[in-house]
Specification:
The chain has 168 residues and is an alpha+beta fold. Helices cover 24% and strands 41% of the residues. It has one domain (8-166): START domain (Alpha-D-Glucose-1,6-Bisphosphate, Chain A, domain 4, 2-Layer Sandwich), CATH 3.30.530.20. It comes from Winogradskyella pulchriflava.
Amino acid sequence: MNKGNLQFDFLVDKENNTLTIVREFRAERQLVWDCYTKHELLDQWFAPKPFTTKTKSMDFRNGGHWHYAMVDPEGTEYWGYTEYYDINPIDYYRTIDAFSDSEGVINQELPTANWKVTFNNKGENSTVTTVVTYDSLSDLETVINMGMEEGMMATLEKLDELLLTLTK
């Protein structure tokens, strides 16, 4: 299957401290929404290879959260904490996303961001538009230098692979 013609945009706006990531998937919108909002599916794709993902706790609702780790092949865990608000099922949701420790304590040394994740139909496919807003230009540059673009590309390719198994 040629996935080269699927839309993928990674736009950096240093004036507004935002990243905009637009990604097309060969699946209908409800399924893609489920992959973003159910931990048993997130655990199968939400980390770039060779990392894996494990959920410690998740409550997908307004005021809820997702506490998870990306785990490298040696077993080192990199924890994240996402707080959900403004959920409008299968259209969009907003989060506050931060680095944390295994207990869910936010790491104040690393950038926290506001995410808006929007789901749209595109013919038989769907697109996900993710707008990530940082507090400052230095926070935006920190995550870019940490490999955000390459990480997102590799992570979303894992979602492509998962969707192939779910749409057969």
